[in-house]
Amino acid sequence: MATLKSVNLSPAGQRYLPPDRESFLDAQRRNRHATWRLSAVCVMAAVVMGIPLTLVITPLLYGVALIAADIVNYFWKLPAFVWEFAGEIARFGSVALNWMFPPHQHADPQALALGAAVMLLPGILLSITLWMAVHMLFRRSGVGGALLALDAREPNQSELKELQLADVVQEMAIAAGLPAPRVMLVDAPGANAAAIGTSPEDARIIVSRRLLDDLNRDELEGVLAHLIASVGNGDLSIAFRMTAVFETCGLLLAVVNSPFGPQSRRVLWRILRYSLWSPSGEAGAQEAAAVADMLSRNVGSNADDIDGFFNPPTKSRVRSILNFIFFPILFTNLAIKMSLWFFSGVLLGPSLALLWHTRQYLADASAVQLTRNPDGLASALQKLKDEPGDIPGGGWASHLFIVDPKPSGGGRAPDMRQKQMLARAWAASEPQTEATATPAVPINFPAMQGQLSETMRAAFAGDAQAMDRLRSLYQNVAAVDPAFAAEFPNPDDLIAARRGDVAAAMRLRANRSKRSSQPAGQSQAAEGGSSSPSAMSIVGFHSSLQRRLKRLARMGAHPDLEAPDRKGSIVVFVIYAIFAPFGLLIAAGILLVIAIMTLMSLTFLLVWLAFIHKAFTLLGHG
C-alpha cells in the first residue's frame, strides 16, 4: 500500500507517516472491542480497590448495629435469636480473618465462603448504594451547574461566526442521526471545546470564542464532529459514571467522619436537603454544583473532621477521654483514606484513563466518518497542540474537552496571533522616521524576547530612548488588544517603582496578584480542588495528541508528524528500567502499610465493641 504523502509535508513528516492504512470503520470496531476489554479491567480494578475498603467498612457497620442493639436491649429485651445471629456472624467473620492474615489457619471452603460474604457483603452493598444514590442525584440535576461554572452564554445573534457555529453543529448532528445539541460559548483565553451532559437529550456543546478565530471551517467541522460523535457513542454517560465513582468516595468519607465534626455533617445535610427539597432552575443547578464540589474536595482534602477531633486547638480532660474512647475510628479513617488514595491513583484511576483514551480514539474515527475529511480534525489538533487550551472553571470536566484545558496558574504563553501582534508592535516601536515594515509572520520570538530584555535593562539604567520604545510597545499592544496588554505591567510604573515611587509599586503588586491569582481563584471557586477524575490518577485522561495524529494518518490524514526521538526513548527506557524496581518496592511498602492499618483497625474495633458490649452486660440487661 502506498505511503501517504503531501506537498505540504516536511521531509520528516513524509518519512514517518505510517504506510499501513485503516478505514474509519475498522478503527471504530477495534476501539469498541478495546472498550469492552478495558471496561472489564476497570471492573476488576474496582473490585480489588473495594476489598480493603469493605474489610474496614463492614466491621464498622457491624459495630454500629451492635451498639444500636445494645441500646435497644437496655430498654426493651431483645429476643435470644438476635444475639445468636450476631454470634454466628462473628464466628464466620473470624474464620475468614484467620484464613486471610498470618498464620493463615486452614478453613472449610463452605465456611470460608460464608465468612468472606460476612466480611465483604455489607461494605459492598453500602458502596453500591452510595454510588447509585450519587449517580441518580446528580443525573437529576442536569447540566445547569456545569454551565454556571463555565460561565457559558448563548451565541451572539449579531456575530456571523457564532451563528454559523450552530449551523455546523446541526449539520454534524443530522449526519450522526442525533438531536442537535444546544450550543454555548465561553469567553475564555484558551482555544478548546467540550461536550457536556448526561445523555444525547441534554447534551451541550461548549466552544470557546477563541476557537472560532483560530480554526478554519474544515478544522472547526472536525472538532465539532468529534464532540457530536462522542455524544453519539455514549461517552457522556460513561464520563458521568466515572465522576460518580470519585464523588462516592467523598460521600463514603463523609459518612465515616460525620460523628466527629461539622464539615462532614454539613456535606450529608446538604445532600439530604438537595435530594428532598431541591430548588428548581438556576438555584437548583447552583446547589447541585456546590454539593458535587464538597464531595470532590472531601476526597482530596488532607485535613478533615476526624483530624480536628483528635487534634483540637485546646486540650481538656474530657477531650482526652473522648479521644481514648473513639481511638479505633482513627485507624479506620486512615485505612480508608490510604486505600482510596493508593488504589484510585495507581489502579482504578489509570484503568479509567486508558478506557477514556480509547473513547477519544473512537470519537476521532467517528468524526472522520461524519466529515469524510480526516485532514480537518488532524489540522485542528495540530493547531491546538501549540495553543493554550485553558478554560477557567473547566478543570472539573477536563476529560470532556478535546484537548486538556491546562490551568495557566497565572500568566500564560502568547498564542500565534498574539506573537504576530507583538512582532508588529515591536517593529512599530522602532525609533525610525520612515515607515516601519510590519512582518506578516512572527519574527524569531526568542530573539525578540532577548531584544526586549536588553531594552528593559537600558530603560532601567536611565536610557530615555529605550524607555520611549517600551512605552510605544505597550501603547501599540493596548490599541490592538487591551485585555492582552493588561496582562503586562505598565512601563512607566516599572521605572517609577525602581525610583522609589510607592504608588507605582502598589499598582505593580496589584497587577501581579491579579495575574497570578485570578485564574486559580476562578478554578477553585468553580472546580473545588481535585474534582476532576484526572486529579485522582497518575495517568492523564487525555491521550497524546501525537498518538491521535498517527491514528488519523492511518485513516488518510496528512499531519506533519514529528520524527521519533530515538535517543530520548532510549533514555526514558533506561530510567524506567532503573527506577521501576524502586517503584514496585514503594508500592509494596504502601500495600503493607494499608494491610497493617486494616488489621489494626479490625483489632481496635473488636476490642472497642467487646468493651461496649460488656459494659451493657454489666448493667444487668445483657
Share in helix:
over 70%
For the sheet with most strands, the description reads: 3 strands, mixed
Low-confidence runs of at least 5 consecutive residues = 1-9, 12-16, 433-442, 516-530
Let me know the number of strands.
Answer: 3
What gross morphology would you assign?
globular
In whole angstroms, how far apart are the ends? 84 Å
State the gist of this model.
With 622 residues, this protein is mainly alpha-helical. 71% of the residues lie in helices and 2% in strands. Helix 3 (80-100) crosses helix 4 (109-141), helix 9 packs across helix 11 and helix 10 (262-277) packs antiparallel against helix 11 (281-300).
Provide structural commentary.
There is one protein chain. This protein has 622 residues and is an all-alpha fold. It has a domain at 416-527. Helices cover 71% and strands 2% of the residues. It has helices at residues 11-16, 24-75, 80-100, 109-141, 144-150, 160-176, 209-214, 217-232, 235-257, 262-277, 281-300, 305-310, 317-325, 327-371, 374-385, 416-428, 445-460, 464-480, 482-485, 491-498, 502-527, 545-554, 566-621, and strands at 182-186, 193-196, 204-208. It has a 3-stranded mixed sheet. It is globular.
